[in-house]
Each structure stands twice: as C-alpha cells, then as structure tokens.
Amino acid sequence: MGLIINVAGRLAGRSALLTRLAGRLVAHELRHLKGKPVERQLLVYDLPETQLALANDLRVVDTILSDRAGTFPKAAALERLLRPLVGGGVFGQPGGDAVKQARRVFLRALVRIPEQRVAAVAADLTRAYIAGWQRTGRPVPVPSELSRLTIDIVSEASLGARFTAGEGQRFVELFFEYHRRANPVLMLLGGQGPAAQQALVERMGLAAIGAEMRALIRRRFLAPLLADPSPSAPAPFAAALLEAAAAGLAPDTSLALDAARQTAMLDEIAVMLLAGHETTASVLSWLLWELSAAPHEQDAVARLIAASGAGRPDDRDGRIDPALARQLAALTQEALRLYPPIAFLLRETSEAVSFRERPVCAGGYIVVSPWTIQRHRALWSEPDRFHPARWLAAEPPAAMADRLALIPFGYGPRVCPGKRFAEIEMQAILRELLGSCRIARTRGRAPNPLGTLTSRPDYDFRLQITARGAT
Fold this sequence. Notes:
The protein is α+β, with helices and mostly antiparallel strands. It contains 17 helices and 9 strands. The protein has helices at 2-11, 16-30, 58-65, 76-86, 97-110, 115-136, 142-159, 165-181, 184-189, 194-203, 206-227, 236-246, 259-291, 295-308, 322-338, 370-373, 419-436; strands at 42-46, 51-55, 140-141, 345-348, 353-355, 358-360, 365-368, 437-441, 462-467. It is globular and about 60 Å long.
C-alpha cells in the first residue's frame, strides 16, 4: 500500500487526467482494506507533508470521536471536496460555534418529520417502483434505482415534493460521477495548503457537476418554497428551514430572504437530499446483492411478513410485528457492519498528540475506519461473512460489549442525525420488497466498494426482481 500511496502522491494535482488516474490507483487499493495488514491497533504513515494515522484501538477511537474540545475537527480537506455540492451545509463543515448552531437548526428541522410519515411514504413509493420494475421484466440496475427511490422518499417526506423521473435520473447520474471523481485520499497526498487543495479539487472537475446538481435542487425545491413561503404539512423540514432563515427579520420582511439566506437554505436542503438518501441506497444495494445469493434468507423474511400481515396497502402507520422487526434489524445490522456507508471518518489534529506511544504531528490526519473496525478479527467472528444470524442469537455478538465496535453512523457529537430516518426507511423498503418479490443474480462481476466519499458499489450491477407468486 505504501508504494501505491507514493505513486498516487506524485501524480495527484499535475493535471486533470493524472489526478483522475491517481484517484483510480488509490480507490482500487481502498476497496480491499481488510484483514491483518490493517488490523494493527494504530498505523502511522509519513505523507509528503504530514502524517496519516489509522486508529483501530477503540479507546483511541473514543477519544477522537468524542472530542468536544476541538482537538480533532473534521478535516478541512473534506469540506473542500464537498463544497461544490453542499456549499456551507452542516455536513461538510470542520467544526466551531457556527457549525454547532447550524447543526441544531438542522436537527430541529429533522425531528419535525413524523416517523409515521416516513414509513408511509417509503412504503407507497417502494410499491410504485416495484410495479415499474416488474412491468419491464428486465434486470434492475439496483444502485441507481435505489438512489432514485430513496431520493424520492427523502424529498417527499421532508420537502413535500419530488424530482420528475428525468430530473431524478440525471441527479443520480451526476451524484455517481461526483463520487467517482472526489477522492479524499488524494487531498491528503497533495499539498496541504488551502490553495493547493483547492487547485486539486478543481482538477477533479467537481465544480460543474456540483453546479448542475444544485441547479436541479434550487429549481425543484427551493424556488417553489420561496414563491409560496407557507409550506403545507407535508413539508415539515422545509418549513423549519424557512423559519430559521427568517429568524431575526422584521415580520413584514420575514419572507423576503436575501441571497445569503437563500443560499444557506439551499445548502441544507442539499445536505438533506444527499446525505439522507445515500446511506439507505448504499446499504440496501449491498444488502440486496448479498440476499440475491441467499434465497433462504429471503424466504424466512417473506414468511414473517405474510404471517404478520405487514405490507398490506392499508398498513401505513409503520407498526410491525416484533419477530419481523428483529429479522429485518438483523439484515440491516449485518449490511451496515459489512458495508458502512461512510467507510472512513477523517479528522485533523489541531495540536501534536501521542497515541500508544506514537506521536502524530499537529496538522496531521487521523482516520477512524468503520470499515476496518467492523471487519476486525479481534472483534468479530467470521468478520468478512454475511451472516445475519449473528444478530438473532440469544446473546449479542461479543464485539457489542463495546458499542464502538459498530459505528456505521459515526459516534459522539457528530453522529449522523438522520440515523432514525434511515432505519425507518430501510425497514419500510425491505418489508415491501421482500414481502412481494424474489431477488436473483444475473451475469456480471461482483461489485466492489467505490472507495472514495462513500462505500457505495462501484458500478450499476443488475439483479432480477420478480413477483414472489410468479412461476
């Protein structure tokens, strides 16, 4: 791996073409980060201008992710990678009082979305997508279709609107291309100054992609909201953002938001759409891939769904039989363990620190990797095997004696605020899909994690999804 890092570091930033080549070299290496080479409790690499540490020691992980003093902020390199897409949105910001305030606003907006609405919207839209897939009879491009579905769910439940089919397809295509080009590892290998990193972002070609995606969001969601700033009940997230944006303005001008406040709203809507759908789409893509080779797992869930009556058209309030809930939780927990949507949590060191008697310089990087921790042989039995039954045993997996052994949504003050939304959404999608369909593999290579911003599959693999009653 050291040789790959060295070669990529020499290529990154020299031109747009060489930057993309360097990104492919590093991404290919990251897809296979598992096993003994990366299971040491602390690995420290010397980079051209700084240091990079990979922490698997759960006590070190706790110190880094629980950080409230600001010693380990989110890396500014990530903010620069995400800015063309989410602007100043809360998801990409390193930290500080302004970010804490923005996070509070985001959380207050998020909790306004009723869980029953999330479940009902997810169920209704999943049924519609399944009907469309079955009408064609063709294998389904799972990652892109699940991205379209989950974007529709998030936007309908939170903003009261959806992209058109053409807009949704374009948005998904652009987002996948953004993932392919945006490579945080290259940001660490290039120059560490803001100007050098910004130049590298420009050579990745992210600006045009981000601008087109933001234009789609503005036209479909923000512009109608500003034209009629009295959101109805189906748009609770949008209503909360509008109220926050108008706070402090005089009553007669509260709806005349200036450009800066409109942009701030656009940023947070972008965060909600992008982060809100990505977790679910990525994890469910991997779960369906695994289930396509495990028909017995599919049948077990289908029997529970049939026995509980879940998935009926009039079953819209999200209630679920305990046995079925446990089975679905086992599937999603195992998918989250094997394929955490954010594989690497990147932090900076604001001062020199030492862990396990290894110094890390000020301005260095520390990676906490759910990918390596959740496949660590010291924590998990058969760590690389898809084995949902581990979550159905009388005793939980031994690793769960320490909750830091499973951190797919992060941990500490910057834990993913949409965790509960994603859980409800995944449960509703699986109830509809596994209750009415069989899933089988078609020809084609096995997907790999893309290995850049998220662990989404690296290509649009196809699965055959047929009605369960079909012969």
